[in-house]
Amino acid sequence: MALVLISPTAMNLWYATTPSPDPSTSEGVLEQTSDAVGQAGRSFWEWFSGWPLHVIVILVVGVVLLVVLRRVISHVTERIAVGAPKGTEGSWKDWMRRTPLVEDAIAVANPLANERRAQRARTVGSVLNSAANIVIGVMIVLSILAELGMNVGPLLASAGLVGVAIGFGAQSLVTDFISGIFILIEDQYGVGDVVDLGSGAEGVIEEVQLRTTQVRAVDGTLWWVRNGEILRAGNRTQRWSRAVAEVRVPVDSDISTVRAALDRAAETVAADETFAAEFIEPPAVRSGVDMVSDISMTFTILAQVRPGMQWEVSRALLLAAQAELRAAGIRRGETSTRTAAATDVENP
Hints:
The protein is an alpha+beta fold. The protein is 52% helix and 17% strand.
């Protein structure tokens, strides 16, 4: 194996002929690179600070606004639905708590009132949430299109025409939904009410939705009624009701004796512990004779009672009237009962 020996003189000569790097050249390259990066950054920021940043800001603000609005709506409607009590004294959530309402007292007396209130509150909350989604969503889209330089005027006109076309095509559906919203907001009827919606749909309300109302008839038939087709609604269990007991006696009966017997019957029912709490006004016999035929005279006992109790009170009045008339030696003729809601009979 041969070894190559390089003399010190040759090494010095090689180092002398090798060029050393120029410091000024390296600094120039770094400066050019730095300038290029800075120029690219400035160009990107000038581009990004234009419509991209504006679009991002619009999206962020719109989403935050929608989330906050939906949360407030859901919070308020849910608290109304569950009937939450007022917060403890000094709690930071006091301002978010609702104060006790008259509906709370009604809910204690009527268990269906809770379900009715919850259904109404949650349905209205759902409508408000949907409206918030549509309004804020449309505002976001229009703002972004305007930021991109598009003319939103023709777009709005086209959307209006499309909306009109859809409205004509789904007119009945829109009518049902709008009617359902007003039924719930105005509290025309609710779960547990006894109603007459016309066209034979008469019974107890089982469910109220935005498009339809479900009514359970006495024979068990479940009626599905479109809200847009309800032209009138008779509610027999709203606010207060009136029990009407019609008593017929032979035409030759002594009127004073009959009235005295019916007065005692009314006092007996009013003093009964079973019905004492149901009366808004005590039962009384209407003055005079309501009807006279060839064979009978008709007297009427009226009582203003809590909603839904008119039928039971009417039956109790008839039983008491029969007992008192029999004790007075008066043979009772045909007897009938009628009930009237507050909206049907204002003045007896």
